[in-house]
Structure formats: structure tokens, C-alpha cells
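notes to self, project folder thing:

trying the whole complex as one job this time. last attempt i did each chain seperately and stitching them together was a nightmare. two parts in total, labels are on each line so i dont mix them up again. if this works i'll redo the older ones the same way
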Amino acid sequence: MTITHGISRGRVEILQFRRDRTAVVFTFAFPALLLLLFGTIFGDSYDQPGVSASHVFSASMIAYGILSTAFVTMGAGLAMDREDGTLKRLHGTPITSTSYVLGKLILVLALSVAEVVVLIAVGVLVFGMSLPDASHWLTFLWLFLLSVVACSLLGMAVSTIVRHARTAGAILNVPVVALQFISGVFIYPPTELPHWLNAVASIFPVKWMAQGFRYVFLPDGMKVNEVAGQWELGRTALVLGAWCVVGLVLCLVTFRWSERDR
Amino acid sequence: MTAIEVSGLRKSYRGHEAVRGIDLTVARGEVFALLGPNGAGKTTTTEILEGHRRRDGGDVRVLGEDPGTAGSAWRARLGIVLQNTDDAADLTVAEMVRHIGGLYPDPRPADEVIELVGLTDKRDTRIRQLSGGQRRRVDVALGIVGRPELLFLDEPTTGFDPEARHRFWDLIKALAAEGTTILLTTHYLDEAETLADRLAVIAAGRIVAEGTPATLGGPETRTVSWDGHTERVTDPTELIRKLVAEDADLSTLTVTRPSLEDTYLRLIGANR
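result (full assembly):
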């Protein structure tokens, strides 16, 4: 029952998202637009033959894409559902909170897949980035799933401090933008940043996501530009896994069907 | 068998006591109306019974369970028509009715429900494009799609045109005839009078009167007028017998029962 209800929610969530043209355009076009700008403006080259700044951005921006579809969409969506009565309506039916969250995860997963396809397409078609081999794709798969789940759960948890749905986007974008500056997405290589900022960034998921996607799409030699000089895949899995657990616990503690009593 | 049993229900918001000790019993199959002005505590009471709000004190049993702790199986037996929802604006009427129906174990067919609330010609229209009254009918459709044993209707006909309101009343009568228990809040007195088997008037968080539409406010309120005199009595027969014995001029005699509206206004006025 939980699964069928969750899938039914997921279908309705996707249907509603598709019909909201503004959401579709902004969610998908904005990261792609940034990638086009960054990739065109910055022409740095590295010691590695055939790697340009646009390739680095194409890889790192996948982390941004997932942040915007998972963290922001989830957080803002939940705040909206709380405000427009969706949650209240559902709470009057036999549906469980697990099914509701499952529906949201299905939406976020679908959006994230589409977003990542768009970004990779820009990287490959516009900037001539080459696609990796099968073993790298395997890494991509677990990295992608851990990133989406961690970001979605954290987005849900953060949405509980959002008081009005119309401010949700603004509030949620603060950590998104700040973390991208310190996590090697907008500013690369991250070794250019002060040490303590690197240390702060390594607490949060974004650095590990971006670094992981760079592992997937860049030649192995590019690892010298990372803070540790290594790809650190094991540690990436650990940190993202830990954030999934933290996010889940926060959601279980903070999720409520109705607004707080006035 | 009782559907709803409430005793000593209390609820405060930041020091303001919205509900101050309400007792209420609704039998299975009964249509019960809660009347009262805005801010009297109707919605708070209803939302506590629906499991949407926590209470500060008192005992509540709805279909045998405590709404504060009852789960999914209990919710499957309820239908709830809320006030002020604005959800699912981008879905069509049929999509939303089918979706919500699908969450219940034994739903009514979506098209049947849409027909019942008179929205068949709007079934493929997005909810965003409906008028306020049509939107409200969608709420009603979503409240009854799960074949509820107990239906909560919180000011269900706000924004209805007269024809839609009469159709809605027929629908509620039909549901009641099938045995659905209904708790209705309204500030339309004609609605309460038409639909309710029993009703209670809430003012400032308390129940100030309870009865049938005919007996609300107690039996003392018959007004007898004759020959320029007016007297309010419990037993008009006795008074008239006395007047006959006194050989009074009864050519202008009238005995009136106060309308529900008179009674209501008197009750609300006395409890402001």
C-alpha cells in the first residue's frame, strides 16, 4: 500500500510539475545557462592535454544541477504543499507520510535525471567533453543516487524552518550558492581558497559531489588539483552516506503534516 | 452506537482560549450541525475531531478512536471537507478525484462522484480555472470519494450559488439516507434547519444550546399575543385556557414559535 500510494503520488507530482511552465524553465534552464556562461567565459587550461575549464565546469555543475532539483525543489515543494493545503488534504486520507515522501523522491529523481542529462549534453555537444567508460559510469550511478537522496532529505528538513512558501526559494538558495563558491564548483581549483574554507566545505555534501563528478568525467591526472590531491571516492561515499542518515533523522524529527498552531 | 463523543474539550492558542470545555455526542447516522459566528471555535473543534489539531484537554472519541493517535485505517473511514485549501491547482477535476480516491480501500468511481457534485462538464478542466463555488464542489467530491462512514463538512457551501446549494443539500440528504454520519459546521441557518437532525450553537468556545432545529433554545420560547398584550411562556395552552376563563378578547390571538434565526441571534447575543 505504501509503495502503490507513493507511486501514485509520484505520478501526480510529476504531472503537476510539468504543467507549471515557469518551474520547468527555471529548474532546467538555469544551471544549463550558468554552465554555458562559465564554460564560455573562463578559458583556463591545465597541465592535462585536452582538458579545458569548460569540461571542469560541465562535471562540477552536475552537483549544482542536483542541488537545484533535489534540495531546492524538495524544500520549496514541501513548503508549498504545507501552505496550499496539499499536506492537510492528504493527512485527511489514509496515506502515510512515507508514501508522501516517496512520491516527492520520485519527482526529484525524475527531475535530477533530466537535469543531469541536459548538463551532460551541454558539456558534450557544446564544449566537446568526452564521455567516460563503464567503470566510471558505475561510480556515477552510486554518486548520483547518494547525492539526490542526501540533498532531498536535507531540503525537506530545511523546509521546516521556511515560514512562507514564497520565501522558500530565496532561503534555500543561500546554502546552495555559498557552498558552491567554497566547494570547487564556481571556483576551481579549490586549492586557490584559504585552507579553512576548504575545511568548512569538506563538512558539507557539495564538495564531495562535485569532486566525485569530476572523477567521473575528467582524466585521472586532474586529481592533483583537488585539495587532497586524490579523488577520495571511499571518503565521498562515507560523507554522502552520513548526510543521508542525518537528513533522514532530521526529517523524521521535523516532519509534520500541519502548520504549527497559531 | 456513537460516532463522536467529546467531553471537556479544551484548546488554547497562545493564551487565547478558543475552545473552553465542549461536550458533544453524535450518534451513528445522525446529521449534526455546529452553528456559531466566526471565531466561535467551530473549526478548531472540527479540526481536533479530524485529527488535524492537538487538543489541550478533554476526552475525544471519533469512530471509537482517539483522533490524536489514530492511524491510516481510521482515516480511511472518514471524509473531510476542509476550509480554504488551494492545492492541486494544475490537476484536472477528474485527475484529482481519481488520485485521492485511489488512496482509499473502496472508493466510489470518480465519474460517479463528479456527477454527484454536478461537475461533469468540468471534469477535464484544471482546478485553477474553476470558480470559487466549483472549487468547493471539488472539495466535497474529494470528501465523499472514499465512501466515508463519517463525513466532516466545514462550511461546505460557502460561495455556492442557490442552485448549487440546493443540489448540495440533496446530496447530503442522500448520503445521510445511506447511513453516513455527518458533522456540519455552517453559519447558514437555513442550511442547518434543512439538513440537521440535531444542532448545537457554539459561542466563545462553549456550547450554549443544543437540540433539534425545532426545540433549540428550549420550550419556554413561545410568544403569545392578544389584544395588545405579549407574553413569553413555556405552555401556551395553559395561558390561553386562563385567558378564555377571564373572557379576554382573543380575536387577535397569535402563538408563535421563534424561528431558528431568532433563537440563534438571542443565544449569540447573550453570549458575546
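what i see at first glance: The radius of gyration of chain B is 22 Å.
need to look closer tmrw
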